[in-house]
Each structure stands twice: as structure tokens, then as C-alpha cells.
Design a protein that fits this description.
This protein has one domain. The chain is built from six helices and 23 strands. The protein has helices spanning about 10, 230-235, 280-290, 365-370, 475-480, 495-505; strands at about 15-20, 30-35, 40-45, 75, 80, 85-100, 110-115, 130-135, 160-165, 170-180, 185-195, 215-225, 250-255, 260-265, 300-310, 355-360, 415, 420-425, 430-440, 445-450, 455-460, 465-470, 470-475.
Length: about 525
């Protein structure tokens, strides 16, 4: 990162306020990003938001789950609402084989958050061994209101660094950053450093493994469900079956920004985008005053933009000379008129490996079979002459993972996978992504997803007619009422937030497509 962010090493040299020291090894702990308009809970196990769950126990929370707007808990008609939370959970996975032990039967896994179904699966000391958790504050003002002489305007205001070991010997350091500046307060940027340390049990004083890793793959996963408050106003629960999953929301993919996000497009059988407040009197009151964020209870488009992925350790996949080949992915390569279109000129798989949208059932026994192995590109791939994906985002996407728009109504999980990689002991891989959320998406932009019939569709506008029980409440919601106060700059929708995330990460305006 060049302008708004620096490396974690430089951060630790700052004279800043640091939260209580290192967390004892093996104990699950968390910190909360609460500096910007987007609030999030992050764990030293890799989990984001909470342990992944779709069941009834997840219908309340006292901690932010990609909460936007922040501090949104409220009481309406005598009922308590936890607020406008937007994820079922999140995290990352990894998988690999020892070079001497190929095949799926010998594959090793680490599920660092993002696993569960109606209840969350345990991650700590099973798949993830916590090592440390540090929070750093870089605020312009001190607690007494005076200017902070050590404030660094080129760094984020809030930095949380989590570190954990895993059973496959790859240690993760995740540095997340948040800001309060109006153009940048709807995002959190995460940098992941994956280092093959050989620590397989969380004891850094011992090294259990140094053998080369083959077919290493990392996966980053979120379960977007905008928003808890909106679903509960209409259904009295954060409805999963028929709501989040194959119900009211769809996933989208904007290849210009490597941006995935979800939006509410329906409310039950009605074409009511963003879930308008169901009570007529309260609709008018909330729309006119902005109370509870206005009369749209689920206007959020929460998502993830991939900012960087490692290209320096990609495995050689050589179907011409198997003595050079490093990956079992060679067995599933496809050709078109003799061309291996999934391979780059230097015989590496074109990235990403997979770009999947699917159900919210992410139990580990399922995900280790489906999601992160060299024998299955679960999302499919853009191929020459494809009838499923007749129009790739651009010619450079031929051979890369496709976005499975026909499953966009499943919408319970979205993940992206990279690799396969070959890792030698001591190797480090770097990734960066932005957790982003906006008031809808760029209206009318033609992108993939949003429905299941055709590959491409236009994103909906929230400046639209809304009716309740047949009565027209407004012909043009935004024209009549405007944006709520929490949309506090000209950066309003998730597309614009993703653009700003790239600007923050690169230190300059991104060139599209990124």
C-alpha cells in the first residue's frame, strides 16, 4: 500500500496506542473495528463477524457483523432489533498436500472461520491456533481533545493485526485497517500474509514440517445477508430458507473491480427491492426523518473486492512434460482445438481458480470435498464457445474461474479461491481484499448475476416506486427523500466504495478493469 496504508512493520514503529498485549496462545479472542461507518468483529482464529451460522441462535447479536450503518440497534413498535448486520460469518480456508503425499486422500485442510450450517463449527485449536492479537490506534486527536503529535495521516486510523498457526504448517498474519474519513469509512482493507513456517500446532518454538507443499490453495469466504433488521421487520427472523437462500436476495459479480456483492431484490413474492418498512405510517416517518436509516430496511449491498493475489508462487502445470509438472490440476485441464486455454504462457493456471456462489451450508465435511481441491474448479470456467457463459467479461477472462450466475439466488455464501501454488519452507504469499458496503450498487450497470436466467443484467436503482398494500408511498424514493445521513459523502454505492478501496490500496486511481 502506498498512500493511506503502510506495512505492518512500519505501523509497529509508530508511537501509538496499543491495546492490551498479546493474547495467550490457544485462546479465541476478538477486536472490533468501530472507527468508520462500517463496524466489524475480527478474531484471532481467522473468523470474521462470528462463527458461521444460519440458525435461530444467530438472530441476535451484541457484536457487529459487518454492521452498516454502525450502532444501528433500535426499538420499533416495542420490539428490540440488534441492528443492520449483514453477514452470517466469514473467514478463510487453506489446503495443501505434502510433495511426497499427493492425491485427495492425503490432502490437509485448515478452515479458519466460515464453516457451519444451522450452528457454527468450532475453529479454535482444531483448524486454527491463535498466536497474537494487537490493536493499534492512530487517531488525529488524543482522548483529551488535543492534537496527537504522533498521528500519521498516511496510515489508517485503526489497525488490527491477528496471527494464527494452522495444521498444514502455514501461519497467517492478517492486518485489517479502517478509517473515519467520509470517502473511506464504508470499507475495511485486509492484508493476508501466508507464511510456510512449518508450525502445525501453534507452538512457535518447534517446527514440525519443512517438506515442500504442493497444490496449496487459499480461499476467502463471506456469507452476506443484508440486513438482519430488514428481514426481522418483515419476517420476525433473519430468514434463511426462502429469504437469504433462494428467496429475496441475489449475488452479483462486477469483474471491473473483482467485486462480489449481494442485494435484496424481492420481499417475499413482491418486487420490493431493499425491503421497504412494512408499516405505512412508519414508512413515511422514517423516510422523512431518516430515523433508523430511512424507510428502506435493507438497502445495503455488502461485498468484497479482491485487491491483490500472489502470482510469484503459482505451480507449474505442464501437460507437455510431466516431469516438470507440479500440480494434480493437470489431470482436469480442458482444451479447445488443442489449446490449453486455462493456462498462461508460462504454464500457470489463470486466476482465480474458483469464484463460487452457493448455499449457506458450509460445514467442513462438505467444503473440503467441493471447494478447495485441484480436481474441481467448483464455479466452472469461462471457455471458448461456452453456451453457459457465452459472453466472458473480456477475452482475458477466458480460462479463468467463471461466476455461476445460475446459482446467484442461492446467495448464502460467496468465496474466491486462488492457486494451485508450490510452497517451499519459508515462502510467503500476499493477498489483499476490501470488505465494502454501499447504499445499493451503481444503478443500471451491466454486470453478471442478479438473476438466474441470463448471464448479464443491470443493477437496480433504489430511486424507485414503493407500494404498501397497494398504496403508492412514493414514485421515486431517493428523489423525494434523498439519502440517509450515514451516506455521508458522494461515495454512496458499493461500486463507488470498491473504487475508493483500490485508490486507498494503490495510492492512485485504479485503471479499469483492474
Amino acid at each position: 500500500m502506498k498512500t493511506l496504508t503502510k506495512t505492518a512493520a512500519l505501523i509497529l514503529m509508530l508511537i501509538v496506542s496499543v491495546s492490551p498485549a498479546m493474547v495467550a496462545q490457544g485462546f479465541r479472542d476478538f477486536r472490533i473495528h468501530d472507527r468508520g461507518m462500517l463496524h466489524e468483529t475480527v478474531f484471532n482464529t481467522g473468523e470474521i463477524g462470528r462463527g458461521w451460522q444460519t440458525g435461530e441462535q444467530g438472530n441476535r447479536t451484541s457484536f457487529p457483523l459487518m454492521e452498516w450503518p454502525s450502532r444501528s440497534a433500535t426499538i420499533v413498535q416495542g420490539l428490540d432489533y440488534s441492528g443492520q448486520h449483514n453477514i452470517l460469518g466469514g473467514g478463510m480456508y487453506m489446503a495443501a498436500n505434502l510433495a511426497s503425499k499427493p492425491e485427495l486422500a492425503n490432502r490437509m485442510y485448515a478452515f479458519c472461520g466460515g464453516i457451519g450450517a444451522s450452528e457454527a463449527e468450532v475453529t479454535v485449536n482444531v483448524w486454527s491456533y491463535p498466536l497474537s492479537l494487537v490493536e493499534i490506534e492512530n487517531f488525529p486527536l488524543l482522548d483529551d481533545g488535543s492534537i496527537n503529535p504522533d498521528y500519521n495521516p498516511d496510515e489508517a486510523e485503526e489497525i488490527i493485526i491477528a496471527k494464527w498457526a494452522t495444521p498444514i504448517g502455514v501461519t497467517v498474519t492478517r492486518t485489517s485497517r479502517a478509517w473515519s474519513y467520509p470517502d473511506y469509512d464504508d470499507m475495511i482493507i485486509y492484508e493476508y500474509t501466508l507464511e510456510y513456517t512449518g508450525d502445525t500446532d501453534g507452538d512457535e518454538s518447534t517446527i514440525e514440517q519443512t517438506e515442500q507443499l504442493r497444490d496449496f490453495m487459499p480461499l476467502f469466504i463471506y456469507g452476506w445477508a443484508p440486513s438482519m433488521y430488514g428481514y426481522q421487520r418483515h419476517y420476525q427472523e433473519w430468514l434463511y430458507e426462502g429469504g437469504i437462500y433462494r428467496g429475496d436476495q441475489n449475488g452479483f459479480w462486477d469483474a471491473d473491480y473483482w467485486l462480489s456483492f449481494n442485494m435484496n431484490l424481492r420481499t417475499g413474492s413482491e418486487n420490493q427491492v431493499a425491503k421497504p418498512e412494512p408499516n405505512k405510517e412508519l414508512f413515511r416517518q422514517f423516510a422523512e426523518t431518516g430515523l433508523n436509516g430511512g424507510a428502506l430496511t435493507s438497502p445495503q449491498a455488502p461485498g468484497m473486492a479482491m485487491l491483490q493475489y500472489d502470482t510469484t508462487h503459482l505451480a507449474i502445470v505442464d501437460p507437455f512434460d510431466l516431469s516438470r509438472n507440479e500440480s494434480e490440476a493437470v489431470k482436469i485441464l480442458r482444451t479447445n482445438f488443442g489449446e490449453y486455454y486455462e493456462l498462461s504462457e508460462n504454464l500457470r493456471i489463470k486466476q482465480p481458480w474458483s469464484n463460487k456462489v452457493s448455499t449457506g451450508n458450509t460445514r467442513s465435511s462438505k467444503m473440503m470435498v467441493e471447494s478447495i481441491n485441484p480436481d474441481n474448479r467448483w464455479s466452472g470456467r469461462y471457455a471458448p464457445g461456452s453456451t453457459t457463459w457465452p459472453e466472458p467479461p473480456s477475452p482475458r477472462w477466458i480460462g479463468r474461474a467463471a461466476y455461476p450466475y445460475r446459482q446467484s439466488a442461492d446467495a448464502g455464501q460467496k468465496h474466491i479461491v486462488f492457486g494451485p501454488y508450490t510452497l517451499n519452507h519459508g515462502d510467503k504469499l500476499e493477498y489483499a481484499l476490501a470488505e465494502v458496503v454501499g447504499y445499493g450498487a451503481q444503478p443500471g450497470k451491466r454486470i453478471e448475476g442478479g438473476q438466474t436466467i441470463t448471464q448479464w443484467a443491470n443493477t437496480p436503482s433504489l430511486d424507485r416506486r414503493y407500494t404498501i398494500d397497494g398504496e403508492v408511498m412514493t414514485e421515486n424514493y431517493l428523489t423525494e427523500y434523498g439519502y440517509p445521513d450515514y451516506v455521508n459523502s458522494d461515495v454512496r454505492n458499493v461500486t463507488q466504495v470498491a473504487h475508493k478501496a483500490f485508490t486507498a490500496y494503490l495510492g492512485e486511481e485504479p485503471q479499469l478493469p483492474v
